[in-house]
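Forgive a beginner's question, but might I ask you for the amino acids of a protein and the tokens describing how it folds?
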Amino acid sequence: MKNLIYFLLISTVVFSQPVLSSEQQRIEKVIYAYGKAMNASDLDAVMALYAKDSVFMPSKQPTSVGWNAVKKAYKHEFEVIDLNVKIVIDEVFQENNLAYVRSRSLGHLTLLATQKKKTTERYRAFFVLKKIDNDWKIARFLFNFSN
């Protein structure tokens, strides 16, 4: 009986998945909505997720500061690439009205000028979100490709 109790205790610790708080679930919904909007090249849907004072730092591109500059950068992105990815969330941290999400993408992007497809398996992203009027918004976003 004692061995069974130890087994159950160890199994629970080793195999249990963390339970996300309701706030963390709401944060994840924003990130998944972002992925869906990006796959659809839906500029309005992407921008609805951003805070007015947002900052966008794309890999190998200039930093865009403020909602209008971020919108212009995404407009350009959608003219250059088409995405077909699934976002994988690796970490969510939330405290009070701030949160961050570390993620990666599985899938590919297509360079529209050449129709060449590139894998996104080396793609890494980092989101900082803030709670504004009870809604989570993307405040800062940066991404890069690992070697």
